């Protein structure tokens, strides 16, 4: 019997009582409350919370059903409400992280598997043609050759270091595909980052520049999803993103090698590059292995060039030093559009 | 009629279906997933196509998640999705059944 159920939507920021109820309920189901969730669908029987599901933009989170209510098709009602709520909020393409043993359930709710780290986490999307349509578009841009390379860059902003990486990678390949991370959360807007990369590498032969997508280093593929075992968080995040690259994107374009710059100072990036070798090349996927090639960063006065260093110099308004790290197009854009306001006239 | 925005209709519950319709240029594409695909997949798609034809929809992407709905339910959900996806409803409801 499910007809004595009451369902409604809440805003956790405005309804603290509901929020705390959800927090308690999720804890009972072994899940953490995530502070980024902007809206919840809640089901109550009498006064008891029996199911909830949350949305953070287009990512489904905090989905739980009272263990005693399972097997009553409540999940399908919960996800129906959630999908309509998301549509009302302007999100039609949804992503969802879940544990691998829940994949079958979400499949029955119209979600399709994108990538799975066995025993840990799976990422799904709510369309049967999402990543497939994206890869079909990529396939039309395939180029012949034995060595097909890929570089994924945020280019925040584009530096001489990025230019060096693309030059070196292109020289080692029959063709090179360069992707600019599309998620617009960086200091430099996506539009500007893409334009700078486009003009910065235009003269390098045998290179195709691609717009990034939700399937590559995006809020969805890199979501800060977490489990009780917090230690594995970082691994899961990189694993899902890298597996989508290996299982979907690389086969579409025939990519055999992925090129990355070394980051001698940053242990996180060092680990990410190690993860990359594991998930792209290791025996963790039926898809062909993608070789990972690390290229030493080019240096300026013995210091490797990095975009983060350029951002630090930008904040300090040190254009004399920025000039040595970036090409003229980047310098001009930074001077005209991203210059930090000065406190006094100089 | 022209599909001008994405729209959704229906539910995931048993004997129902969820229809998502999206603007698309130059073709009418239907992607159907059904729990009864082997027995009724072709029939469900035919009902959806017939319904879209009556409404004069020639360009759209229609994604259907079917849970074993009867023909009349399929038609009703497709019509509702279309009504939410167009700017002006010009079809005659009585001519649709």
UniProtKB/TrEMBL annotation, chain A:
Protein keywords: ATP-binding, Ligase, Lyase, Nucleotide-binding
NCBIfam families with a match to the protein in the record: cit_ly_ligase (TIGR00124), cyt_tran_rel (TIGR00125)
InterPro entries xrefs: Acyl_CoA_acyltransferase (IPR016181), Citrate_lyase_ligase (IPR005216), Citrate_lyase_ligase_C (IPR013166), Cyt_trans-like (IPR004821), GNAT_dom (IPR000182), Rossmann-like_a/b/a_fold (IPR014729)
Catalytic activity: holo-[citrate lyase ACP] + acetate + ATP = acetyl-[citrate lyase ACP] + AMP + diphosphate
Purpose: Acetylation of prosthetic group (2-(5''-phosphoribosyl)-3'-dephosphocoenzyme-A) of the gamma subunit of citrate lyase.
Entries under Pfam families matching the protein: Acetyltransf_1 (PF00583), Citrate_ly_lig (PF08218)
Source organism of the structure: Rhodoplanes roseus
Annotated EC: 6.2.1.22
Sample GO molecular function, one term: acyltransferase activity, transferring groups other than amino-acyl groups
Protein name: [Citrate [pro-3S]-lyase] ligase
Domain N-acetyltransferase: 1-129
Automatic annotation (TrEMBL), chain B:
GO molecular function per UniProt: lyase activity
Keyword Protease: no
Protein's UniProt keywords contain RNA-binding: no
Keywords, ordered alphabetically: Cytoplasm, Lyase, Phosphoprotein
Residues modified as O-(phosphoribosyl dephospho-coenzyme A)serine: 14
Signal peptide coordinates: none
Cellular component terms per the entry's GO annotation: cytoplasm
Cross-referenced InterPro entries: CitD, Mal_deCO2ase/Cit_lyase_ACP
Taxonomy, superkingdom: Bacteria
Localization: Cytoplasm
Subunit structure: Oligomer with a subunit composition of (alpha,beta,gamma)6.
Family the UniProt entry places it in: Belongs to the CitD family.
Function: Covalent carrier of the coenzyme of citrate lyase.
The protein's name in its UniProt record: Citrate lyase acyl carrier protein
Organism: Rhodoplanes roseus
Gene this chain is encoded by: citD
